[in-house]
Structures are given as structure tokens and as C-alpha cells.
Amino acid sequence: MHIPDGFLDAKTWVSATVISTGALGYSIAKTREQLSDRQVPRLGVMAAFIFAAQMVNFPIAGGTSGHLLGAALATALLGPWSAVIVLATVLMIQCFVFQDGGLTALGANILNMGVVGVLVSAGLYGPLSRLVKGKTGVVLASFAASWASVMAAAFMTGAELALSGIPFAVVLPAMLGVHALIGIGEGVITAAVVLAVLNAGFSPNWLRKGDVCSE
Amino acid sequence: MQGIEDKPSAGIWIRGVDARVKMIAVVIFIINATTLQDKTLLLTTAFLLLGISLIAGISPVHLVKRLAVILPFGGVMVSVIPFVTPGEPVWTLQLGAFKLAVTKEGWEAAILPCLRMLTAFLGMAFLTSTTSLREMTHALNHLKFPKILILLIDFTVRYIAVVMDELNRMQTARKARGFKPGRGLWDRHTVKTIGSTLAMLFLRSYERAERVYLAMLSRGYTGRYKCCGHCHRIKKLDLSFGAAMITVSWAIKLVDMGGIQWSPLLK
């Protein structure tokens, strides 16, 4: 879903870049309330984990395979604000090192997969996992959050292409249809990972542990 | 993990050009190129970039390998846009009850973004093949890019190799125990195994993050980005390279803008 250069026109990519820069700045400010600058190494290792998680292929059906987008996984494990920063970092590295996703489209890609993906996941994961107690709640919440984050990212991609004058309004339903299937894969794997992590006794609150020598 | 800390594959003179200059020049080049309207000018730009890349000593094989990453998106767009744009049909495809028509307008609409994508790709390939990531983050630091993001990119790149190695070891061990992925998502065992692999990878990364953080603190880490100490002034070579790139880019852009205004007068 990484948009390359050339498909978005100037007004679209400039607005997308402005929005995602704002969102990223806000997330950094929010994370600073919990983590200090000195904990950047910790977020770096977590970003490396998300990068690696995106590399794992899983079979979907009939010999096809997919890989994770990671927005919902990062949200469930790291919390929304750290997740936005971590995903933006991963997308920047993919752009600058692997040329996956264009330079002018970087803001749009961060907006689709980072910001919108995380906000949708966070909006669903928190309330759902509180609404339904226990492991069922965690599975249900992570599945719903992942599926919705993939759909939201696909919708945003389609909408941005349409805004750029590429006749995409006809293709949008097809794109959403395909991603509805991909989203199921993302949902199942994310739910399995989140469940296994919580079963191992991990608590997302650990990330909010303060600085060791902050006193 | 290949590719991430590779030595740039380019010749020596181009690596001497200051990374800041290269970055600014390439960014301006790409922004101008992706707003060009004229196909001939776009092609000219693409060939110019290809020429510079080849002169800089980037191997064509390397470029083709890089191209493979962006082809899926471009390929889908090229194969879809001509069919869905309304207009004069030039070629039809009969698929049972469905009739798909490639339109002239659709073809035009597909070619332009693809040429732009290719041009921008060549620009980025030029930048990333002639500049190492460390040089790029260093340049970003001097260009006043937010420090926290530069630090994060630095750490992430360093640990991607470590985490990927860990993942590969786990996958090898899994294979050695006789695991074969199933055919689809309904295979509970496959989903559970992949889920627990990633969960384990997360927990190990989390613990590694703790260890790394404590180790760095004990060595006096303060969260500040340290400049590597070989910052150099802009040389004549940098200035002439940057000026040439930017001038050529704007020249093409101006011809393109002017071309649109002049074309009605010529008719």
C-alpha cells in the first residue's frame, strides 16, 4: 500500500504532509509526557521489531501470502502515541533506504498507515477490550482494530488518489474489497500475537515506566 | 540483513559531494519532476537522471533490483486506469459477459503518473546509492530536521539488523522442529505458531530494549545527537554540483510551464 512518487498531485501530497507532520509532532509531545528523550533507544528497538514483524509472511488462502501492516499491533502493544512515532520511523526508513514509497508521498503514506491506521485501531481496541472482559475481549478487540485499520488505510489511499485526479472512484470499491480479505489476515495474526504476548505476562503499562535516573 | 548498511555502490567523486547538497538538489529535482505535464520533458528528465547515475558509477543491475520494489503499485495502476477512465475505446477485451475497454483517455491518464514515478524513482535511487544512511542522517541533522526523529532513525536502523537476525534464528529453529506453514488462515496451528513467533520476538526485543537503554545510560547517554565530528564546509565541487542540478531542474520546469501557455498560440 506504499504510494510511490508521481501518483499524488502537489495539493494532495502537501496537505497530507502537513497533516502527518502535525500528528507526528503531537504524538512526540504526548510521548514526552511519559518518556524522556533518553528513552529513544527503547522506541528504536521497538520500531525495529515492527519492521521485522512486517517482514513475516503468512499464508492467506490458495497459495497467496500476506504480511502485516503493523498499525494495530503497534497500538495494542505500545500505545497509540508511541505507535504513531514508531510507524512513521519505519515508513521513513522504508522510503530512504529501500525506496518503498515515494519521497513526495511519504507524508501521505505516514498519514494512511501510521496516523489514520493507529487512530482507528486505538479507537476500537481500547473500548472493545474494556467492554468484553478477558481473553475473548483481547482477541475480539485486536481483530476488529486490525481489520478496521487496514480498511481505513486502503480507503485513505484510494481517496488521496481520487483527489489527485486519478480516476479511482470506480476502483475504490474493488480496492476495499481486496483489503477486506487482507484485513482478515492482519486481524487473525495480530490477535494471535497480542494474545500470546499478554499470556506471557506482559503488560503494556511497562512501557510507561519512568526514567531510571530521572530523580 | 542486506542492503541497509551497504557501502554505497557509486564511484568516488560523487561520494565526495556533500550529502546536504545532494539531498536538497535531489528533493528539488523530484518535486519539479513530479509536477511536469509534458511527457517528452519527463522522459528527458528521466534520461538525465539515468545518465547522472551511470556516470556516478551506479550499476544498472542495482537499479533494476531497486525498481522491483515499486513495480507492484505501478503495475496495478497501469493495468487498471486505462480500463476505468471513460472515453474513446481503442481496444476491447471480452471476458464472458463482461466487456472491458481500454480508452485513449485512460491510456493517457496512466502513462503520465508512471513516467513521473519512474523519474522520481531514478532520483531517489541516485541519492540512496551515492549516500550512506549515516551521511543522510548527519545531513538531516545539519538541515535542522527534528533531532528526536534522527536519533530514532539511527537506532532503528542499527537494531533492524539485530532483530532480523533474531527472527531468522527463530524461523530456522521452527523449521528444524518440522514446522511447515499451512495453506491458509483457517489452519489454527499455523496461525498459532506464527503468532507465538512474533510474540516471542516482541518480548525479546522489549527486553533487549531495556538492556540497551540501561547499558547506554550507564555509559553516560544523555539523549543528545552527537555530530560525528567531520563536518566540513561546502566545497566548490558541492556548490557547482548543486547549482547545476537545481538549474537544470528549474530550466526543465520553466520550459514545461511555458510550453503550456505557448501551445495554444502555435495552433
Automatic annotation (TrEMBL), chain A:
The chain crosses the membrane at residues 12-29, 41-62, 68-93, 105-125. It is found in: Cell membrane. Keywords: Cell membrane, Membrane, Transmembrane, Transmembrane helix, Transport. The keyword Transport applies. It comes from the Bacteria. It is a multi-pass membrane protein. One of its GO terms (cellular component) is plasma membrane. One of its GO terms (biological process) is transition metal ion transport. Pfam families: CbiM. InterPro entries: CbiM/NikMN. This is Cobalt/nickel transport system permease protein. It comes from Desulforamulus putei DSM 12395.
Automatic annotation (TrEMBL), chain B:
GO terms for biological process: cobalt ion transport. It comes from the Bacteria. CDD domains: EcfT. The chain crosses the membrane at residues 12-33, 40-61, 67-85, 106-128. Keywords: Cell membrane, Membrane, Transmembrane, Transmembrane helix. The keyword Cytoplasm does not apply. It is a multi-pass membrane protein. GO terms for cellular component: ATP-binding cassette (ABC) transporter complex. It is found in: Cell membrane. NCBIfam families: ECF_T_CbiQ. This is Cobalt/nickel transport system permease protein. It comes from Desulforamulus putei DSM 12395.
